[in-house]
Amino acid sequence: MIEMWLQYNHLDREYGYLPGMTPARIAALLGLGEPSYVRLIQEFDTRAKDAAQRLLTDPRCADLVDRLPIPKNATIVGIGDSVTSDRQSWLEILRHAIASRRAADDVTVVNAGLSAHTSAMVLRRCVALLTAQPPTLVICCLGINDVTRIGPEPSVTQVSLDETIRNLAELRRLGRILTSATWVWVTPPTIDEARVAAFPGFRQGQSTWRNEDLAAVARRIQEFADPIVDTQSVFGRPPQAELQGPDGVHPSLAGQAAIARAVIERLSLSSDAPGPELVEPR
Hints:
By secondary structure, this protein is an alpha/beta fold. 50% of the residues lie in helices and 9% in strands. It has a single domain (2-271), classed as SGNH hydrolase (Rossmann fold), CATH 3.40.50. Helix 8 (119-131) packs parallel to helix 9. It starts with a helix and ends in a 14-residue tail after the last helix.
């Protein structure tokens, strides 16, 4: 359970304002020795790196990474929930793919994902997320926690659809004010409802998700003017079995790699005419 918790949660990120958030102290809070804590983090990172290398064995994918319209010394910030904060997420796979193919470009990838956060919770923290390291490109993937339903026979989602879209639109508005970054949206992927219903942790907390709710969020996101990565068309509805993890909500490593590939393909569109240019060199 500690390993699974550590995969998605970052105490130093969520509580970085507290003094002394060192690896040794975080390890102690989790009941681990520092060597075990460091080893687990390295294992997650190795899996993400290996997934990136598998993507790059496809010559087309490698070529797309080479042609991504991202300038030298760019900073890419990924905003999201546990789908992004996952230590072997699509963003970590993207980071390794760029580092492997374009090391000389010195591109920085910042994972600002916050596990269990809704769009409203991220909105509250967005100023720090957007200004800590001024981004060249922001990639935002939110919505899964917004549509969580709680309790027996739940009648509402944790955040209403209209409020979700309002929060995302406000996040984008603040992004324009606080940064000069280009923005890309990633729709929340579909979930495996049967696995969700059977997962002990979700049963204990009486938490559930519905693909119809996620589809509604994705449809509204696709109305935004910015470039969109539609993960739901990649995963399918219901999702392909190998793309979702045991709990039915968090993508497997194969699912995260599929998202990373979709992001690479969408970003690379600006290298081909027609299509909007995503990132202008500063």
